[in-house]
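Input sequence (123 aa), recorded before submission:
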Amino acid sequence: QVQLVESGGGLVQTGGSLRLSCAASGRTFDYYVMGWFRQAPGKEREFVATINWSDGSTYYADSLKGRFIISRDNAKNTVYLQMNSLKPEDTAVYYCAAVYGRPGFLPRDYGYWGQGTQVTVSS
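Predicted structure, token format:
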């Protein structure tokens, strides 16, 4: 059974940085793609970034390129989301997700989800 556990959320001021972690367990993830999504109050869950576990290839939401960086540590089975120059509009619950095979950009593409971690950016 795949388990994804996010951590690292919190309260940060505008312009600050946070690094989220997603610890994955339950199977070998060599052929999986890991994604980060976020959901703000009253809004739909939206794509943030993905990374291919095997070759490290990445995709980002256009609006977040240059500020957010996704990475992984194979030895620790952990995926990270480094968030820089944070803005109040980045406030959301951030979710880690996993899908076998191809990268996806919609929540419905992913079969496994973590419980989410709250990120709040104060102005």
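Checked by second reader. The radius of gyration is 13 Å.
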